[in-house]
Amino acid sequence: MDPAFLPAPDILVVRFSAIGDILLITPLLRTLRAAHPGARIAVLTKAQFAPLLSHNPHVSEVLGIEPGEGIRAVAGRISGIRYTHMLDLHGSLRSRLLRRLVPGPWTTYRKRRVARAALILAKRDLYGDAPPMPERYFEAADPLGLGPDGGPPDFFLSEAADARARARLAGLGLAQDGRPLVAMATGAAHATKRWPDEAWTALARRVAATGADVALLGGPGDVEAAQAIAERAGVSVASMAGILGLQETGAVIRRAEVLVSGDTGLMHMATGVGTPVVALFGPTVRQFGFFPYNAEHSAVVELELACRPCSAQGGRACPLGHHRCLRAIAPQQVFERLCEALA
């Protein structure tokens, strides 16, 4: 039968969290929409992350999992829908339980756990030519015959979010009268992914000395540290940590000339809105698949150390006690890469 006469697919995509992981599924969503303009594409994720996809034109609907909502309740919500394709892009115990509770045409991707363990524990690289994470997600779409289109992630923003971000910046006196803005994501979910606060302070001072403004970004857990960095760095540096939603954070990053970040979700926000990024990688490495993806003018700062990588997602403390992977990265080195990214 001519494919043009086949009914449009009804697709469920499951990715519960978190910021970066959800943004990295957007190249697949974009390709799904391009191949099947009439398809219904639903994404199941935690409600707190729904704003990452709320204005994505490639998504038909976002199914938000509310705090405290159990996986059985979630299964009850989707069990009555006959999806033609069900893509598990999380690959966790919870998503596997969902697949058991809601039988259907499920597909998933390889998590390469053996290669990851070998690299962390024995420093043996078994990854070979494993593609970046956004392209690994396409393994779940094999039945649809799709491949990556070569584009970066997508983060679509509302006009209202942009207006709120602009007002927040004006209230802090940032990015006014043509002054350039540099955004810095100074926090991270795991301690070993965080560049030292004194290094952020030195970099912020160096950037401010060029005549640019600096906005420090982060979540509620980053408020105290970001405020302290801003106070030590002086004028033209202000903290916006903890006061912005996901859409507003993306809008601030889009207005910035560049984002400096660790291995965090905000790094992928920058690639999603087209802002150059300078990313600092410590305990994690390229093989895990989370370097800035297909982003123009992106740069990664990392040190070649025998102890890297020490974990897949970062941890509470350096296993060797020195945290040299990030502590030994000098602010001047990052500043030079920032200038190269802008050039």
Please explain how this structure is put together.
The protein has 343 residues and is α/β, with parallel strands linked by helices. The chain folds into two domains: 142 residues, Rossmann fold, CATH 3.40.50; 181 residues, Rossmann fold, CATH 3.40.50. A six-stranded parallel sheet has the order 8-7-6-9-10-11, sandwiched between helices. Helix 4 links the parallel strand 4 and strand 5. Helix 8 crosses helix 9. The protein starts with 9 loop residues before the first strand and ends with a helix. The N terminus is likely disordered.
CATH H level, superfamily name of the largest domain: Glycogen Phosphorylase B
The CATH topology of the largest domain is given as Rossmann fold
Strand order of the largest sheet: 8-7-6-9-10-11
**What CATH architecture of the largest domain would you give?**
3-Layer(aba) Sandwich
Based on CA atoms alone, the radius of gyration comes out at: 21 Å
Tally the helices: 13
Question: Mean of residue pLDDT?
Answer: 96
Structural class based on helices, strands and sheet pairing: alpha/beta
Q: How large is the share of residues in beta strands?
A: 5-15%
Order of helices and strands: EHHEEHEHEHHHEHEHEHEHEEHH
Helix content: 25-40%
Give me some keywords for this one.
343 residues; alpha/beta; Rossmann fold; 2 domains; six-stranded parallel β-sheet; 11 strands; globular; disordered N terminus
In short:
This protein is of the alpha/beta class and 343 residues long. The chain has helices at 19-23, 26-35, 71-78, 93-101, 113-122, 133-136, 159-171, 197-208, 223-233, 246-255, 265-273, 324-327, 331-342, and strands at residues 10-14, 40-46, 61-65, 85-88, 106-108, 181-185, 213-217, 237-239, 258-262, 277-280, 299-301.
